[in-house]
Amino acid sequence: MAADKDDIGTISALGPFAAPPRTKYDRLIARAKEAAPATTVVVYPCDETSLRGPIEAAETGIIVPILVGPAAKIAEVARAHGLAIDRYEIVDVPDSVAAAAKGVELIRESKGELLMKGSLHTDELMHEVASSKTGLRTARRISHVFVMDVPTYTETLFITDAAINIAPDLDAKRDIIQNAVDLYVAVIHGTPRVAILSAVETVTAKIPSTIDAAALCKMADRGQIKGAILDGPLAFDNAIDLEAAKIKGIKSEVAGRAQILVVPDLEAGNMLAKNLVYLGKADAAGLVLGARVPIVLTSRADSVRSRMASCAAAVLYAHARRAVAALPAA
Known about the structure:
alpha/beta; Rossmann fold; eleven-stranded mixed β-sheet; 11 strands
């Protein structure tokens, strides 16, 4: 399988004395540095990892953070871990609940292009984001995308949705796919190959996710999902391995070399992503899409590197949105 021109992970043709190849995340971060920094509202960065991530992203030149949380606590964390925060705006609020509300308010007031989760619980932030009166909802379903750097896979791998929608119906899956496709086009470029996963690669009434997969492929044929090549149902092996697809007799542009994996439900997606991280030694960046702005939604266990890559992906997405907004009206 030929390497995608945007993915770095193969041995250099210059031989063993060449510099070590950069990972996919290094390329992602390098691209983000070429775009204008995005003002990023960071909600409750009150431990080392959640504060170091945006500060290092700011020092790299990809974001301009606004830190929202208890000012004294943020300063204490910065002092304890040698982080310089003097040049960044701090919005002082008493606790994580207030920080989530204030962060969303700042986005609604157009004070930032990105929202970033700190050390608060995901539910606290998403409760404010999803509020029908004061939140950031749009007509599009809100969904989560993992942007994964799997060392054994040539492609940058997107997995969706493994964090927001528990058991999405067909309409929700359509939005989940479109969100991921829009992100891929903004971050990686090109037309992504989308595999809609199930336990088997044949359509059967006994497994409802196979019926959804077939319907979603037809929706793409009719223009209800745009900008991607879809195939499904596909089992995981024949979605990402050419030999497995060949053995099953599957012939498609997607089978064996998928770039976006659409899971049937949150449980399957969460287990798949964590298996890749803990057994496959993959890195996992995470974004929430479908709201007014991209949301950098990381786990409290995520590394600073994953947080940096999440920021980079969000910045590239915001940059693409700026470019579209700047186009003259048709």
